[in-house]
Fold each of these.
Amino acid sequence: MDITIIAQALIQGLMLGAIYGLIGLGITMVYAITGLLNFAHGDFMAIAMYLCLALFTHFNMDPYLSSLIAVPALFVLGLMVYHFLFRRVLKAELLMVVQLTLGMVFIIESSLLLTFTADYESVPNILHAVRFSLGPLSVSGSYLATFLVGGGAGAALYWVLQKTDLGRQIRAISQNKDAATLMGINTTRIQMIVFALAIALLGLSGSLTTSILTMEPYMGLELTLFAFIVFVMGGVGNFLGTLVAGYLLGIADAMGSLFIGGHLGAMVPYGLFVLLLLFRPQGILGAK
Amino acid sequence: MMGENSRTDIKIYLGLLVLLIVLLLLPTRLSITWTRTFAMVFLFIYWASAWNIIGGMAGEINFLHPIFIGAGAYSSTVLYINFGVSPWVGMFLGAAIAVVLGLVIGWICYRSGLPHLSFALICLGFSHIGEIIALEWDLLGGSRGLVIRPAPGLANMQFETISTYYYMGLGMAVLMVGICHWISRNKLGYYLKAIKHNETASAAIGIDTVRYRLLALAVSAFFCALGGTFYAQLVLYIDPHSAVSITAVISMILFCAIGGFGTVLGPVVGTLILMPIGEVVRLYVMTGFHLIIYGVLVIVVILLSPHGLVPWFQSRMKKTQEESPA
Amino acid sequence: MLVSVQDITAGYGSVTVIKNISLEVDRGEWVAVIGGNGAGKSTLFRVISGLVRPRSGKIYFEGRELTALPPHEIVNKGIIQVPEGRMLFPKMNVIDNLLLGGRNRRARNNVNESLKKVYDLFPILEKRASQEAGTLSGGEQQMLATARGLMALPRVLLLDEPSLGLAPLMVREIFNSLQILNKEGMTILMVEQNVVVSLKNAERAYVLENGEIVMSGSSKDLINDDRTKQAYLGI
């Protein structure tokens, strides 16, 4: 096989990997400070994508422009979901949280189905037809934008987590919640903000990928699965590991569809994940 | 204390008996659509109870059941269509495949002591892979699925009247609830409860946790697969979407959640409440809307009575008994 | 009175850990609560800091009631706890731990001076500034925990078992620093199992047994009390 084709796929995978890292980072942050796992995580990204679809069909709005609506809208949605639902199961056992969020999966997916039908959709954006080339390699503008903005957001968030007071508060809660409280940190408020921030990231990821990922009402669970895989692969609760795992998963995804293709190719990321869990259950960057 | 409990139990069993008699007489009064719907409700009681053995009693977030159901449905159907093997025989091949798959996946995962979440994800991953295999393998009909030609006859596990399916489903549900009841009163049930409560401590007091989790998984897989065959014979058509369905296993989990995880009657109560409501909504309001109803009901029940309706009901009955002087 | 604990009863679930506890701390005082394992000392502190809600009773700080406030507001008032087992943030470096200590509303504009002050008090911490807290020695961890508490500009410092698990030499060093702080006017309320050290340093002490206060008085009186001698000093 031609080396340029492989390089081409590698680049594409890397660019989509930025998004996987970003949605995984949301899961990691929420888990780190609340211990909660949201099986409806990916469904919120589906909501964002369909929001862009609606804005496009009714107002002919470019998805990049729609992100200015989608991000704050999902932030508010996140605040509400946290306040009315998640806050109440903070001390419940894992299984109960799983059920609660699986209930949300049904609600969101079916609502999307009833509102938008089961048709496959995608929304073009302004950079969709633009191609950038470097030598024999070329990449579509929307992939490049996804990489730059998504990867940039991931890196920026990592910087916030490591270097700012908010980040220090988040890390403190994740390492010892009682001690964080004794530092005068309003843990309830931080938990709510982080949850909403994670959902807002999905608003961004969704608006960036409307032309790359095909949307359908049931896509959420698969996105959640990808996010969880990234979360576990990176070493549960490890922010940097999550971002790295995102890129790895993107590459695995691209290689699978290049060398095997079709449905079977789509199995590659899962296969990789299963192997990794069996041989390195603590994740790529996790400590033993 | 013991006496109070058994008195509560007797009341519950009397109630169940009345319910069973009503259900036995019901088909004479039901339309064909509703008879079929109830056959499906019974199948889901059966499936949810089978899931509950590994999910509720052992406390695992197990998503492997789409594979088990698929193994049952596809094995008997492929054997019947291509080789004329009776589904009564084919279903045991399916069950055997399901048990082997379950044991292999379970053995690998349980031995490496994966945390619950990682295990849940591996299960979801495998179910996804199962769906993809069904889509890709020509023998299994790919995305077009497999159609079973109608040829009524006991040997073909096909029946003239829909009420025969109804009674068969009812029988399966009763059998499965009986098995769950038996398990919960026996060594396996106690061990599973101990493992659910604290796996490390259970291992420390000498329970071979891997062995008992595998046993529970095998039982669950075996019966789920048999149900898969029944499903194929009832609908006479299977495809990857319906027979290797993650939505179905989520439904089972939610039914158990509403009724009460790990309780014998939880899956029965949950399914009997949710599915008929869902079907009414699906038939008379809108398809798809029933899943929204499931979701909302589950969330409401979890927020109001986190352990489900059966435990809630039991604690209430206990209270009223304690309040009223004997 | 700076701190006044009145008739506090508290516990977890159906278990009552402390019963009808009342105690007072005046400005500039160093008061100790002495008691063995499971006497309820840590629960008492968790109640004062708002981490555990009491079943009954009230707590006043400068005459104003604290009992209904959320924990972070109690910190903002200047009631700072250095918890048992130190509860550092193990994967953060020393300086991040200190900065977190100094981020409450009263302390946050004073961070640089506070930092200088705690480095003066515990010079080793400055050397370890960029090291992860989890990698410090036990004594250094106790210094960091205390320093993190000081960064919060406490108006009363609650010390939970500052001598726990430390070598005698290190205990002396920590208490020397606490003596300096107390001389400068810091109010200290401390719970300790180490009776000798407590009574040597604190001015007054309460003795806690099975969740109840069984004795109280000045350290001098308690040291000479026969019951204390028998029960706690082994004389």
Amino acid sequence: MACRRGLVECTAAVDRHICNGVCGCCGALRPRYKRLVDNIFPEDPEDGLVKTNMEKLTFYALSAPEKLDRIGAYLSEKLIRDVSRHRYGYVCIAMEALDQLLMACHCQSINLFVESFLKMVAKLLESEKPDLQILGTNSFVKFANIEEDTPSYHRSYDFFVSRFSEMCHSSHDDLDIRTKIRMSGIKGLQGVVRKTVNDELQANIWDPQHMDKIVPSLLYNLQHTEEAESRSPSPLQTTEKEKESPAELSERCLRELLGRAAYGNIKNAIKPVMIHLDNHSLWEPKTFAVRCFKIIMYSIQPQHSHLVIQQLLGHLDANSKSAATVRAGIVEVLSEAAVIAASGSVGPTVLEVFNTLLRQLRLSIDYALTGSYDCAISGGTKIIKEHEERMFQEAVIKTTGSFASTLPTYQRSEVMLFIMSKVPLPSLHHPLDTGRAGENRNRLTQIMLLKSLLQVSTGFQCSNMLTALPSSFLDRLLSATLMEDSEIRLFVLQILISFIDRHGNKHKFQTISTIGDISILKLKVDKCSRQDTVFMKKNSQQLYRHMYLACKEETNGRAHYEALYCLLALTSIELANEEVVVDLIRLVLAMQEVALVNEDNLPLYSRCALYALGAAYLNLISQLTTVPAFCQHIHEVIEMRQKEAPYLLPEGVFAEKPRLSRNLDRLGPEILFRQSKISEVLGGSGYNSDRLSTPYVPQLTDEDRLSKRKSIGETISLQVEVESRNSPEKEERAPAEEITYETLKKAIVDSVAVEEQERERRRQVVEKFQKAPFEEIAAHCGARATLLQSKLNQIFEITIRPPPSPSGTITAAYGQPQSHSIPVYEMKFPDLCVY
Amino acid sequence: MSMEDYDFLFKIVLIGNAGVGKTCLVRRFTQGLFPPGQGATIGVDFMIKTVEINGEKVKLQIWDTAGQERFRSITQSYYRSANALILTYDITCEESFRCLPEWLREIEQYASNKVITVLVGNKIDLADKREVSQQRAEEFSEAQDMYYLETSAKESDNVEKLFLDLACRLIGEARRNTLVDNVESPLPGEGKSISYLTCCNFN
């Protein structure tokens, strides 16, 4: 056996000799470099590289670097021949020699040498033998770690990228070998990246043709983490193997790659990731997708993170018609990525990010409503699952929140303005879609957008309410349209709460109660700043009005009253100066009045709830003002209620099983909070008692005229009605407020009963008439005319029950054309009357 | 002294639906065997084979791609640098034939415009289960300006011919291209090599 082997080796040696002879260089005449190269090969390849001769070769190469390229060429020629003759022992030796030479020679002539080196690596990689592939890769990796100081123009790594990527997908039958080949492939890719990434002269590794191979190959290995781990048999081996697992290695490689990506390259690197996730449907369980993008976000240079976000958004748009679960996956990834990218996530196009998200939200609402992705081609091939769409919508909302949380305050309020501007509201110029479908869509859109808004506003801490909440925002938020639906109404209240709560007191008012000592709440209170005062000056009336109207809604549930209480309480501790406190007390007393007079025929629960709300708030505010007499009055009433009417206290009303009484019409004065008493006790402590004693009446806004719901105009007319009905009694009580034609007219012209504001308003009106364009004045007057009409209707209805024949004075006064079929008071004023 | 061990190097990429026998064709050609129960290819596979045509060494880099949809993105990235594409379908599977236009669109989109495409109907050993007639396939390939060949990797029918013919065509194409490239300054004696195309022909 040994003899035979010797023979084989012998023939091999002879072979080589003959070859050399054939080359035309016999023995001693051969060039020195060839002799040196030949000498490093032992007779028996098992002996390995002849070390002493290798040193000689190295020394020669160093002293005569111009010969290096010939050495390389000769070595590679030998190696290629050895590969084809399956003399793998010699192949390994040649490779070892090459590696050593490469390491030793850091000089200019390395360039030519490298060419033959790469040819040899390529030759090894072409082989089917795993050992040779791995050998070639290892050499290549060593080479990749050498920093060359001279540029090389004509080097192509195409084959290497292709082959290494292919190795990453190895499906060798033997598991161990498969893992080894895959590892080699990853290492090779890492080598190519290292070698080329910073050299602009070399093949651009960032070109899609390379990235589309490298990235999916790495991801393919990354996604098989679990499989690899579960396979390792013993725990001891596990730790060792994990260090070496392809998944770990590919993760490291991916991080390195992304860390080196410059601005212009991000796109090419990220796109294959998304396509890979698409193709392997990895958005849906989303764990892997999230992991991928975590790796990406943590490894790319932070100033580029917004590019990733943009790509994801673009991908979301491209997937508009994919299954909801896929879209939800992308959105979830976005949400996670946004948090990592922190301040840099949104980049220069803040609103574009939110625009995309909101567009997707609207699309999803449409899909859910119509049941198909495209109204035109509803072949029914794709069935839309409503609950999946809903999950998607929730994901979008969550993502909106996580984006917003990364923004600085000023951008956040911009975003909130933007979202608010997208909430569909009816206006003169853009009537909303009508019909049931349209209404439903509007409602859903409103809910979704308000949810997003709530998400954005949580944790929003603005130092300056005035800039954070411009009136264009508040106007829309407090619009009457958003009050009709109880769910939407609650959202609006919650949004207001999260705006106003800047010290994290919100949760302390989550439940309504009349606690004896509020110090246990440990409220965090700052003094109301100047800006806050200005904000309240400007917007308080609108806020009060909103709360007042909100409390009168029949469809209110417990949550609404709790939110109202919370809002009242927070306003008192965040934004209140003396004036605001006075107004809030008036407001709450007006709420009590609503429950007492009950002209809206509120259900029993609502009335009790209003009483309870009043009790809870007054209890709080009395303790906040720390006026002993005030506290005492409130305390007395609450004690009274505890004894006689527990159903008027929050503990009774807002319990699991509310205790209600049917008999709310005969409440004794001792269980009601009295305005006169309060104004008296507070007046003594320096509060404006005149103002306190005036009942609160909501301010009329432009919008009321447009809204379809029972308008405030009507409310006021009703008050007029009430007042005119009770006029004799009222005359006794307050002779100054005699209802004459003059006062009535005044009430019509200027609907605000708050006296202090009257003068100011008048001045404004005058100014408006002086400065405003004609159309505006006309519109204003037109609106007033309708108001006048509605009031006249009201008065006619009260005063003249049987429709009289056209009354001369009135028709004459308004130039009403005669039309006998309609009673005069039902006629509309022609538009021309306005002018 | 040339370090190259070949005269020509061509990249050939096999594409087509999953399970039509791409890997078997490659195996039959490169290793001369027919692996029964060949599993689905993962991503892409690489094989190399050097053949001699008219005394010239032609090295064929053969990239055998996965047919499964999920690997489409990585396989597409291999089209670009290909000199030739072997578009394979299964003659016993109507579906794989019906997908051909889709594959042609992919080629249009991702491959170079100089690429040579060959249509191959594989598994002719299963003649009794044939679903796609030869005539139909021939008409299709004619309309698309492709060469058409029917093979059996199992019986080794036409496999050798497929690759060798393709290599011939590629050589011809390569020579023509060098010729076109040099049209500005023709080298003496180069003009005569134009007739190389006749060395082999399809069908």
